[in-house]
Design a protein that fits this description.
alpha/beta; 18 helices; 23 strands; 36% helix; 19% strand
Length: 538
Amino acid sequence: MAVPTKNIPAPDLVPVRRALLSVFDKTGLVDFAKALAAAGVELVSTGGTAKTIAEAGLAVRDVSELTGFPEIMDGRVKTLHPSVHGALLGIRDDAEHAKAMRDHHIEPIDLVVSNLYPFEEVRRSGAGYASIVENIDIGGPAMIRASAKNHAYVAIVTDPADYASVINALEMNLGSLSLDFRKKLAAKAFARTATYDAAISGWFAEELQIEHPTWRAFGGRLDQVMRYGENPHQNAGFYLSGDKRPGVATAKQLQGKQLSYNNINDTDAAFELVGEFDPARSAAIAIIKHANPCGVAEGQTLKAAYAKALACDPVSAFGGIVAMNRILDAEAAEEIVKTFTEVIIAPDATDEAAAIVAAKKNLRLLVTGGLPDPRAAGTTVKSVAGGLLVQSRDNAVVDDLELKVVTKRAPTPAELADLKFAFRVAKHVKSNAIVYARDGATVGIGAGQMSRVDSSRIAARKALDAAGTAGLAEPLTKGSVVASDAFFPFADGLLSAIEAGATAVIQPGGSMRDDDVIAAADEHGIAMVFTGVRHFRH
């Protein structure tokens, strides 16, 4: 049964006469407290916050004066008291509430300023279990939620970024805050505590290895409002989860205009792909368009890798995203800027390279400080009508898999190296995915087709077009290897790859017709290995 409503209308303007300040993040605190005091607001505070305010020369009452009870248990219990929560939750225009406040000497609080223990930061720091638990705030969320619920009379500020707007609103309304303003602060406050609790519940699920908790929550903080989403008629915002995995969300943008929704999506796809390649082994470049690779290659240098990646599909590379696994150097930068590119993302960039990119004022350059770990555990989320699909990240790496040769002919060492390369790339191509590779570079990519044989044909066709552009007598798929993200359900997809010139195949296996596919490979002298792992990507 719902709690009965008393239908007492909320006042528009509420004078701010008393404020309770209790914050962990003291950014801007002193200036804000000075502005409140100058506006005639009485300051009440707790612990370290009160000390900071007092040291600034401001008059401040300790909350224990209101409660008649000292802080105890190392500050765990200080605001959890009727004198505080009665001051926050009392409906002042309700006669019964007003009488209770008078009878119990509860002084109303009009403004609460509270931010929370840094649970998210402590969790990410790798601290021990006890330290993480100790940074779960209790009194803060309780005060925030109480104030937000009673926004009819109380304003709640949870973000130092809002201090200036609060002071401005007080000045405009001669010491009062409007109902509309209080509602907006309350909405932000509830979103903050929801995000905080999501982080805590998510940590517990990970700590206890609960794969599918009964209740699942996700949270994030707005980083930027975008001009539009995937299309101009869609609005969009970019939210940060707090995960420190190197990538577009944690990168520093050195130059260029604001990233768009599609830029962020494609840049994430590009950097996750290039993270599959160990920079200690070779340089690697991935060129992405619409979240699919149009060229990926390894090389002795980034410049060499870029040339090989670009040759795979130079037409599609126009307006693409370029990701690399090493520090961007001047030689590579000079080559990349010759083709119109939207974003370059790298672990870092030399000053010379940054200067070269800077000549293209709209080209974004992002540096991440590191590469994403392809083996790391994680969670991905996709929205569907009425729900969320949540799964663990695809962290299977081909180097860790036990490859099984299923044909009469085993791949040569050179073929095996290219097979592994192709399968790394296929993991990041939309299904159905077919990837032809040769000498550490993609030479044909077929993505996102309803039929695997169509993906194979499209990849071969793109290789033919690229050969024409490069003036080659035949496409580079002749003598290549081919990877499929999932098994071949029929031999026709394999036969299409053989027709394109592939000499070896890597695929998960597991089809009811595996024997037919293996027989077709043997008939044509093709080497085939099974990985036992599928890489669907939708």
